[in-house]
Amino acid sequence: MIKKVLIGILCSAAVLTLGILIGHFGITKSSGSAPSWVRDVAKDVDESLVEKFLSEVDNIQIQENLRELTKVPHMATTAGDEQTVKFMLKRWQDPESGLDQAWREEYMVYLSFPDPKNPNSVTVGESLILQTKKILRWFSPYAAYSPAGHPKGKLVYANQGKPSDYELLNRTIDLNGTIAITRYGGAGRAAKAINAAPYGIIGVLVYTDPLDINDGLMSDINETYPHSWYLPPSGVERGSFKNHYGDMLTPYLAAKEETYRIPAKNVTGIPPIPIQPIGFEDAYILICELGGEAAPSEWQGSFSCTYNFGGPGFKHTSTFNNSDVKLDIFNYEEVRSSANVMGVIRGSVEPDRYVIYGNHRDSWVHGAIDPSSGTSVMLELSRVLGKMVKQGKWRPRRSIIFGSWGAEEFGLIGSAEYTEQYFTKLSERTVAYINVDIAVFANATLRASGMPSVQNVIFTAAKQVDAPGLDSMSVYDNWIQYANKTSPAHGTIPRVGYLSGAGSDYAAFVHYLGITSMDISYTYDRSKTNARIYPAYHTAYDTFDYASKFIDPGFTSHQATGRTAGNILIRLADSLVLPLNCSDYAESLEEYLKTAIDLYQHQLKARNISMGKNKTFNNAPDFYPEMNQNALYSRKTHDKSDNSLPLKVRMINDQLMLLDRAFLNPLAFPDKYGYRHVIWASSSAGQPTFPGLADAYDKAESSGQSNDWDKVHYHLSVLSQAIDGAAHMLLDVI
Amino acid sequence: MIKKVLIGILCSAAVLTLGILIGHFGITKSSGSAPSWVRDVAKDVDESLVEKFLSEVDNIQIQENLRELTKVPHMATTAGDEQTVKFMLKRWQDPESGLDQAWREEYMVYLSFPDPKNPNSVTVGESLILQTKKILRWFSPYAAYSPAGHPKGKLVYANQGKPSDYELLNRTIDLNGTIAITRYGGAGRAAKAINAAPYGIIGVLVYTDPLDINDGLMSDINETYPHSWYLPPSGVERGSFKNHYGDMLTPYLAAKEETYRIPAKNVTGIPPIPIQPIGFEDAYILICELGGEAAPSEWQGSFSCTYNFGGPGFKHTSTFNNSDVKLDIFNYEEVRSSANVMGVIRGSVEPDRYVIYGNHRDSWVHGAIDPSSGTSVMLELSRVLGKMVKQGKWRPRRSIIFGSWGAEEFGLIGSAEYTEQYFTKLSERTVAYINVDIAVFANATLRASGMPSVQNVIFTAAKQVDAPGLDSMSVYDNWIQYANKTSPAHGTIPRVGYLSGAGSDYAAFVHYLGITSMDISYTYDRSKTNARIYPAYHTAYDTFDYASKFIDPGFTSHQATGRTAGNILIRLADSLVLPLNCSDYAESLEEYLKTAIDLYQHQLKARNISMGKNKTFNNAPDFYPEMNQNALYSRKTHDKSDNSLPLKVRMINDQLMLLDRAFLNPLAFPDKYGYRHVIWASSSAGQPTFPGLADAYDKAESSGQSNDWDKVHYHLSVLSQAIDGAAHMLLDVI
Q1: What is one GO cellular-component annotation here (chains A, B) (predicted)?
Q2: pLDDT of residue B633
Q3: Do B258 and A429 touch (CB under 8 A)?
Q4: Closest residue on chain B to A726 (Cα)
Q5: Residue B438 class from Cβ within 10 Å (0-12 exposed, 13-18 middle, 19+ buried)?
Q6: Per the CB < 8 Å rule, is A616 touching B256?
């Protein structure tokens, strides 16, 4: 059903490539006595300006931005957050190096906080031996959206809190009334509690095992920060414990003051039972005292003891003996005003086309790496670009919008509300979204994810930037050593990931709006560490000191990320023809298709569902004979002497800009909030192929029910229609 | 919540009006030695070409088109339909007067037919005294999508089959096991059976009362056709008995061969019990013999007897005595291949902008008026325009797409599948859709419905066309005498209706795609007739003879409709700045708002739901200070000597084109298939105001439940966000 369609995309991509040549060569650069706008509309990227930009992006400026941004903790909607709002506005409204305009936009969003008067605590037996670390009033670690409650029961160890973990545990122990301790990883934060509740578990603890974050190291005497980048025993990873992104009380509506809010009791995708994060110093005490059988080897972490399931509860020999564990959780939910800070540079030729560059501003504590590394880079880009604009040396062809999103840590709320509020305007006008959240995880190599069509502009940009700390090697050449793949069209190239999840603010742009997006950072040498993420992630140790000593001394990786992302930004804003390559998209779709055929075709054939034929599209050339003629025509007009219309370039650009929009289907995933992109939606099947198809197939195969097989057929049709629709966007316009 | 927003729209409409002035005057008409495209992109409508077009639209050509189209019955997917497909293709592929390209596109759609071997029948007692008229094998009257079945029971009269009708009847009679006879009007076709079933009614008859269609006349000796336009006693109105438009087995997916189809048993919105249409000669026999109490006066029709409820069943004194009525219905459903015929004229400057002009091709029998009057006009327009193109005298700025839709009579299927298949392409590129289905209901005056933004171009066009049969009076001046209203901005003007229903193929364009649309025809002098519609509607009497003798002798009203619609088409295709007036849209929204405030504000205030304030938008000027500056800037560039960019005009046109798209919300009406436009969706509340709000309010007021009041608040928020979004599309682009 979808095979021919993909080939169709490839073909039309070829047509477009020719179209791109028209764009580049067809418009004469000087037009004699023509009006000045004739020259303006034909202007392409100015490479000397790119060079100037690259040379002006300054590592020390980034360092000082970070120092300023991390002065105080700035959790969403707190006084520290307000301080960063004012700082962003001041910088973006600076008369020498600010943007054309900058302003704040408020949303009233549903957040969750610990009670400053009653810190959450964990008790064993009668004595309060574990109390979650209080770094500062208001910032004691907690699980946002965990309900308040005071569950008390025998402790069990449930590995990562995956469904299979609880299932296995339940075979050995009666879990009713127990408290489960789990480690981070393997399952989403909220899922650890959601998966637990059906077994009668009444509370959950979650900690970071040194195996997963510290390459096994755990001594704060000489191993962990401040001796290295590793997490100290007292570090606690906070986080948002919810499954859906955006404000949960105002689904699909911008959370303005008077917006209708669903009753809080109707919110889904949050923990039904109390859950609390703790540091591994506390987890160690609890886990190593557990009784019962030894857990399987995959459940073992780095502690110097065997991880047992729990009796439930502790060993007889333990000092805890048969004590219960009690959680006292005082979290409460509140609707609060959270601000996005927005800034724009107005486009000169096509002000109604937007390139959006964004990052969140809120942190859990000081948030030096997450998110202030990204914000420091964004401020440096906007300073360099803003200065060129203020000095009259440059104005981009298209408009640039900078977004400093609020309340991302609570589930990408600021960016999601923004896309809900400006849905049509952003859909119709946005060329691309660039996300730089954690700018530097580590200083080994560039990392990029995005729609396949942005691969090429990322490569172009990365080739022009020097790799930090390496003599005469580009970011691109360095990158290809760390992560590469073989492309049928390009040979060996760096591997660009996909944005199928909702890990940062790109989510609403990718999944809800269907805007071509990318996420850029500097990251690890994976041969040197197995850390799940940089060790201080979401803890109070993510500070300026930590960042400047152990993540990126000298801030040169920040600089490289900024140069690369800024170069991409300029190219997207200034290129005459948008640097989006749809044939790279087709290559990825072909890979997905091949996987789908390998995995599913046999079974589907047996059920009379065909994957290999799409009559409509196959017949299209007969219906539209001129399509092929036009491909030829395009080839002919490659001739430089032929004058072409600026509207022809706009037409091609609109085809490129809107390609991803054709993949949207607002009804395809009724159970996944905000997921409309049928190629990149999240998937639980874990297969590198079309997500709706993969998940439906998994379900049908396990249930065997005929209506589940109907769903597989339905998702094939959704996919076929979406890809067909995308191909129609790329074919000759009429 | 929405008041200020509307004022905002008005303001931004003013900004746009200034923008329009830039477009008209800013681009110099000659540019010296500039490339030729500099002149081409600045070209506006050529009024001499409009005149030439008007003079060439020929009434006799239309008459001959109609004669050809109505030679044989052409119900969807029959041999007669195929004949019309070939005829359209021949005309649109004509080398002298055809289009650039024309082709057919097939969909496999779910239809319903009578069994040619077993004609449906209605029996009283033991003798077959009523047999539905068999006009021709395959075209015996039937209710499409009525299930087959053989219900037998006592007859009752249920007026129009509205919920209130059955409710009233049920107070007097036990309806279990009865057959209800109903008259057309008051409720949808399928609704008459859907409303009946819950009362235990097992079959339904439906007929056209002479009161509703014939101004009371019913004698075929001297009163009805062929003596006049009135329906003869044997005439039977056929129709599609379904609530949702489009193919019912493939919701939101184009019905291609391999598309997933839902099981037919899951189809909703069709009659759960057999229903059959009959002529009033048969209805007369049945109704005048009914026993029981006299029905209320509003239930009485034109028959020369009292309409009784039924005993149930007939009077004791009737020859039918206590006989049952039996329906023998042999209808069956089938998936069949139905064709759209498509034709295009490629645009010269903006080929990627479409003006779509369409009508369905299929009829119930010969379908002279419905739909062939419209098709005859469309063919004449395409002949005149095609000839100009073939002769090299003209090529529109934008592309023109002609659509001859299939299977409209079965629920707008061809046009709906087309919009599903090409969703993104059509959404992103279509400037407007013009529907001319029944071109001439009667020859008194023009009738037009559409989004308020098209009012002005309809007026412009109608002022340039002579009213048929009237000396030196324009279609516009004639129209204003029949239907007018007072506009705050324009004074007395003809009344243009809204497209809030799904009466013809505009439905998918308006409600699913959110494309600015209009529906044009010539119609009645309402002071001369109360006929629900032209009397031969959907009967075998709708023939060429009928049309040419009683609807439009001389075909001058067809000509006037064609000239007006064609003039609109040219203006939409050729105008430099699109002739869509968003301030007229704002005027209609203000009226809707005023009604909403009058009707609902008091109650909503009492429930703490505010309608009068929208903080976001109210504050917008502070956020975007440049907006107002730009209004000033626009005013300044009114100056003719200032050169402007062609991309600036494109930008304004995109704002106008996409305005309606901002009103779409795919989740607002989960129970209404294909309805996404929050301003024009269908509504059962019967109030001239926002449909979702009105329906939710009605429900909440009658149930009093708090979750129903929540729905009212929700719809206010949906509306507020949509209008806000539309305003953002009109404001300065960045």
Answers
A1: apical plasma membrane
A2: 34
A3: no
A4: B424
A5: buried
A6: yes
Question: Which residue in A421, A643, A721 is closest to B253 by CB distance?
Answer: A721
Last residue of a domain, one of A574, A599, A633: A574
**C-beta of residue B207 within 8 angstroms of C-beta of residue B161:** no
Element (H, E) at A174: none
3-state secondary structure of A316: coil
| Closest residue by Cα to residue B408 from B9, B81, B64, B132 | B81
Strand partners, A207: A183, A278
Q: Is the peptide bond before B312 cis (omega within 30 degrees of 0)?
A: yes
pLDDT(B187) > 60: yes
A204: nearest Cα among A149, A141, A268, A285? A149
Mean pLDDT, to the nearest integer, of A160-164?
98
CA distance A300 to A306: 7
Residues A66 and A211 in one domain: no
User: Which residues of chain A does B622 touch, with a Cβ-Cβ cutoff of 8 Å?
Assistant: 103
Cα–Cα nearest to B685, from B695, B677, B693: B695
CB nearest B38 (choices: A38, A351, A424): A38
Facing residues of A519 across strands? Answer: A435, A449
Residue at a domain's end among A552, A574, A596 = A574
* Residues of chain A contacting residue B31, judged by C-beta atoms under 8 Å apart: 34-35
pLDDT band at A131 (very low <50, low <70, confident <90, very high): low
> Which chain A residues are Cβ-neighbours of B340 within 8 angstroms?
none
Q: What is the CA radius of gyration of chain A?
A: 27
* Closest-CA residue to B277 (of B184, B351, B346): B184
Range of the domain at A513: 47-112+335-574
The region, left, alpha or beta by phi > 0 then psi within -120 to 50, assigned to residue A472 is: left
Examine the domain organization and report whether B92 and B68 are in the same domain. Answer: yes
Out of B254, B666, B721, the one facing A721 most closely (by C-beta) is B254
- Residue contact B651–A351, C-beta within 8 A: yes
Share of chain B above pLDDT 90, in %: 83
Mean per-residue pLDDT, A238-267: 97
First to last CA, chain B: 24
- Average pLDDT score, chain A: 90
ipTM: 0.92
Q: Which among A237, A408, A417, A587 is annotated as catalytic?
A: A408
Which of B721, B600, B615, B594 minimizes the C-alpha distance to B668? B721
Check whether residue B194 and residue B310 sit in a common domain.
Answer: yes
Which phi and psi angles does A340 have, rounded to 5°? -90, 145
Q: How confident is the model at residue B36 (pLDDT cuts 50, 70, 90)?
A: low
Q: Do A662 and B35 touch (CB under 8 A)?
A: no
Residue A505 has pLDDT above 70, yes or no: yes
pLDDT of B125 reads 80
- CATH code at A58? 3.40.630.10
Cβ–Cβ < 8 Å for A212, A165: no
By CB atoms closer than 10 A (0-12, 13-18, 19+), residue A227 is middle
**Number of domains chain B contains:** 3
Q: Which tokens sit at A724?
A: 């067909």
Q: What is the DSSP string of B489-558?
A: TTEEEEPPB---S-SSTHHIIIIIS---EEEEEEE--TTT---SS-TTTTSTT-SHHHIIIII-GGGHHH
pLDDT reading at B198 higher than 50 = yes
Q: What is the pLDDT of residues B548-594, one digit of tens each?
A: 999 999 999 999 999 999 999 999 999 999 999 998 999 999 999 99
Contacting residues of B for A710, CB less than 8 Å apart: 260, 262-263
Is B645's CB within 8 Å of A41's CB?
A: yes
Which tokens go with B202? 């097992």
Are B368 and B438 in contact by the 8 Å Cβ rule? The answer is: no
